[in-house]
Amino acid sequence: MGIFSSLLSGSGAWNPLVWLLAFVVAVIIVYLIWSRGEKSYKKGTEQTTPFISGNKEPSKDAVHVRGGNLYWGYTEALKGYYERIVPLHSGDMNDYVLWYLGTTALILVIVVVLS
Amino acid sequence: MIWDVIVAQSPALLIAIPLLFAFFCPFIGKISNMVRNIWVAVGMALTSAVALILAWDVYAFGTRIYVFGAQAANYALPLDSGGIPVRIIFTVDPMSALMQIIAAITGLAIILYSISSEQRHSGLSSFYTLYLLMITGILGMVSTGDLFNFFVFLEIVSIASAGLIAYRVDKGLAVEAALKYFVLSTIGALAILFAIGIYYGEYNALNIAMIASRMQFTVLDQIALVLIMAALAMKCGSVPMHFWTPDAYSMAPSSITAMLVVASQASLYGIFRVLFTLYNVTLNTATVGWIVIVLGVLSMVIGVTMAIPQKNVKRLMAYHAISQTGYMLLGVGVGLAVLGNQPLMDSFGYTAMEGGIFHIINHAMYKGLLFLTAGAVFFRIGTYNLNKMGGLGHSMKWTMVFFIIGALAIAGIPPFNGFASKWMIYESVYVFNPILAIIAMVVSILTLASFVKVFHSIFMGPKLPEYEGVKEAPLPMLIGMGILAVIVILFGIFPETVVSTLIVPAAHALTNQGAYIAAVLGGV
Amino acid sequence: MFLNIPYIAVVVLALIGLATILFKRNLIKIFLGIVILESAVNLFLIALGYREGGIAPIYTNAPAGEEMVFSTVQALTLTSIVIGVATTAVMLTFAMVLWKKYGSIETNKIRRLKE
Lengths: 115, 524, 115
Known about the structure:
The structure holds 3 protein chains of 3 kinds.
Chain A: E1 7-9, E2 12-14, H1 16-34, H2 60-63, H3 72-77, H4 79-85, H5 93-113
Antiparallel strand pairs in A: 1-2
Chain B: H1 2-29, H2 33-61, E1 64-67, E2 89-92, H3 94-117, H4 124-143, H5 147-165, H6 173-203, H7 208-214, H8 219-235, H9 244-251, H10 254-279, H11 285-307, H12 313-337, H13 342-381, H14 397-411, H15 417-432, H16 434-459, H17 475-493, H18 495-511, H19 513-521
Antiparallel strand pairs in B: 1-2
Helix pairs in contact in B: 1-2, 1-4, 2-3, 2-4, 3-4, 3-10, 3-13, 3-17, 3-18, 4-5, 4-10, 5-6, 5-10, 6-8, 6-9, 7-10, 7-19, 8-10, 9-10, 9-12, 10-12, 10-13, 11-12, 11-16, 12-13, 12-15, 12-16, 13-14, 13-15, 13-17, 13-18, 14-16, 14-17, 15-16, 15-17
Chain C: H1 5-23, H2 27-48, H3 72-102
Helix pairs in contact in C: 1-2, 2-3
């Protein structure tokens, strides 16, 4: 029982084995539902190609959405934040040293002067 | 008999073995590549074995000290010195032992990975020499009980990692990244040396336990604390001094990036050692605790928001490393903020510290795994650009499985180890201040979002015609990734065993300044 | 008053070194700034060990009854000088390779890694 006991914090408990049990039950239920699907179809004919309202399917590398285009909506919505933060990562080494020394000075003021 | 000798001398062997293997590596390299690979693998395996033996001994029997150059290993106070430890002492307490375990496991996985991922490059004798020197430096940094010795090992790690980051010159980009890392590192190390000079001038001692027993919190001590804290926070990549981290992590070879994560965590260990063992309750815990918490929250938020629009997969993962360092700073900062107050410590302070420290070992495992999968993809298709990749899940199935394990772990999805440590941090930080816990949870959601983006870009989608002949990654790389993945899964399924065996002694040893001083000064 | 001159020199040298690192563009000048900063810290370490009227800390044939200056800080300074030599050598090698690959060693031209 020692190795399977739950992790305790001051206000709750977490036991991954209970979670795994629930996950296994969920997988069994999903498998039972999937196995009642339609089994009689012919592979490789028109029955398995994607249906795009009758248009021709484009070539494979035009279908894949590239990494830079995902989350466009998120970056567009937070444009005010990103336009301020991204230029700070300027690549200029003097700026990097300035940030380090500035932070040291700020923490020095907070710890030494203000208490 | 041999076993007793090894256990008794293990702190010295921990530094001597990798140093010896590093110095002979260039000569052995002249014989042949295969002999050098075996030499390096044997050296790393021996180092990991000694580190694990020492860690087991410290967890079973308590803090170990090792005095260099004395008659016996625990002869800390010479008779004619008047009760002052004059020699360099390695003090290995359970927190140091935990960091040694991390370095040992990660180092072993990375050597197995490097042997096949670097096979197409030249100049490998220098690569492995610098790698073994970096291992020496990291193990020394976490074991030492002497401040100047810490500075020397810190510089060893800086110089070796700068050389390793610039290893693949890559039309000058890698050298630019190494230059920025190194200039910042040097300025930070000079600030640490200045602070060590202040301590020596005030207390006439360099030993951490000696300074801790004499510490009063004068103005000079406050200045020294700020200098050390800011310099080590810059070395571990916390915002707003994190600008070198994406450059250095993305331009280094992938196996070295996984080790740079461990080196950053050794600097984090340095901050904790200074804050908890050197100062403990003499400092103004509310102010300094809140400074650490603010650094942690800034790192979490800015790290993850800068990660989402990135196009280079290793730069994205480097911003996530910054973000996860914020979690560790948040957890331990909450523990520091309630340090003097024993009822609050018992109710949530210890849990917060255990969450932060558990996150250190979890992060080393899953971040190392993620960087190694990015390196495996690069090994096969030659690019890190997310806009050019796609459909690799058809051919690189094992790499995809390891990536899924790493991505779910970093996002904090049960049953992996990331969830266990993040849950401990959420529960305890919520009692301290609910807003911090809510910010931490939102950052976790954004982490999941950006890794779903990376997973779709690299592995999902139809098979692309330009990646027609891509095969799975070579077997040594898969074994290296497999070691880390197995630990990610095991730590997730049995978190209570891991926490009670490894993490709780470490957290208690960190906060218990009296026990540390007593171990070195013998009850004074 | 005279006992404080080394410490005043430390502060002046450190400020000169930091100003050079922050405001100069040429990489070699930034490295010189780092060397000046390092000299400042070494001077600070040695000045800590001075005891008024002390003699050099040499054990053989030391005159009896005389106080010696502290030798621990001198060992620290020697180690620091050696680390400084290694650091300067590595930084200059980086500058050489950057000159060959980028054609320039100004920090506002070495900015290909940004954001």
